[in-house]
Design goal:
The structure holds 2 protein chains of 2 kinds. Chain A has a domain of about 40 residues. The N and C termini of chain A lie far apart (about 85 Å). By secondary structure, chain A is an all-alpha fold. In chain A, about 80% of the residues lie in helices and about 0% in strands. Chain A is built from 3 helices and no strands. Chain A is rod-shaped. Chain B is mostly helical. Chain B has one domain. Chain B contains 6 helices and no strands. Chain B starts with about 20 loop residues before the first helix and ends with a helix. Classes of the chains: A mainly alpha, B mainly alpha. Chains A and B meet through helix 3 of A and helix 1 and helix 6 of B.
Chain lengths: ~60, ~240
């Protein structure tokens, strides 16, 4: 049994995504999720503007 | 009128302007949801066994359920309003809030299942919290089916409003009361770690509470768009 494994077993800290944080790749995932939410909100704003236009044409009649 | 929301123009609710959100509410929804999604990944969270990094689901899965409960509460209020006022618009608002709430509920159920697969080893376990959530959603599904089964608008409004009040109470019992009375595996129930005073530290609260507000406002925004679409349809058929 390697020494590092023993150290890992003795380590009482619960496992967290420390590796993902240390090499910075976690922020890629954060970026992806933020992008998805931005697109979703952009779609909502688009729907809102479309509806406003439709409502205006209704009102002018 | 017993309930008056400052941002809702509910006066004379039979007109088609009954649900209008000011622009700052939508902006607030955007800012809080985006920033809480970002911070939800970044902030330091307590190191807990079993939960590990999935404690961050609090910012996504739990807020989705909170949005659902809030929308169902609005639906419940508008059903009571409909029974006292008899206005068709109140019943329509109750229906819209239920439908949008169900979207958040289904999102909560599916994200919960994904989490359960990696935490408990199965997508579904016979747990009071899970079964209660599923039963509540089925009860609301029954509301939609029941409401669509009437052609007479007066009967439709009356019967579905009465049922909706029943469904809301049922949801509260099945999601919030029963899982706490028996033992449940779900975090926050039966002594399992979740957002109790011991586990939810102040950093998490700082993100969690704005996230709840943001998701609720997002639900309101979607409801508003749905309402305006239906209002246009009514205008068209007139």
């Amino acid at each position: 049994m390697s020494l590092s494994l023993v150290y890992t077993m003795l380590d009482s800290q619960p496992a967290m995504a420390d590796l993902m944080r240390s090499n910075g790749k976690l922020y890629v995932v954060v970026g992806v999720v933020i992008l998805i939410f931005l697109v979703l909100f952009a779609f909502l704003v688009f729907l809102d503007i479309r509806l406003r236009k439709l409502e205006k044409t209704k009102g002018s009649k | 009128m017993p309930f008056q929301w400052s941002c809702f123009r509910t006066f004379g609710a039979n007109n088609l302007e009954a649900l209008r959100l000011p622009i700052w509410v939508k902006f607030l929804a955007f800012v809080t949801v985006i920033s809480c999604v970002f911070l939800g990944f970044i902030v330091d969270v307590p190191r807990l066994d079993i939960l590990n990094e999935t404690i961050r689901n609090l910012f996504f899965h739990v807020t989705s359920w909170f949005a659902m409960v809030f929308l169902f509460l609005l639906s419940f209020i508008y059903s009571i309003k409909h029974l006292s006022s008899g206005l068709e618009m109140d019943d329509r608002l109750a229906k819209i809030f239920t439908e949008v709430g169900m979207v958040f509920g289904i999102a909560g159920l599916v994200t919960g299942m994904l989490w359960a697969k990696y935490t408990w080893g199965a997508y579904w376990v016979p747990d009071p919290k899970l079964n209660g959530a599923a039963i509540s959603l089925l009860a609301y599904l029954a509301y939609v089916v029941l409401r669509n089964s009437f052609s007479d608008p007066i009967t439709k409004g009356r019967v579905s409003s009465v049922y909706n009040i029943f469904a809301f109470v049922l949801m509260l019992i099945f999601i919030f009361i029963l899982p706490r009375m028996t033992s449940s595996l779900h975090p926050g129930n039966g002594g399992n770690p979740a957002f109790s005073s011991y586990d939810l530290d102040n950093t998490m609260r700082l993100v969690f509470y704005p996230a709840i507000i943001g998701w609720i406002l997002l639900g309101l925004w979607i409801s508003e768009i749905k309402f305006r679409m239906e209002a246009l349809q009514i205008n068209k058929t007139k």
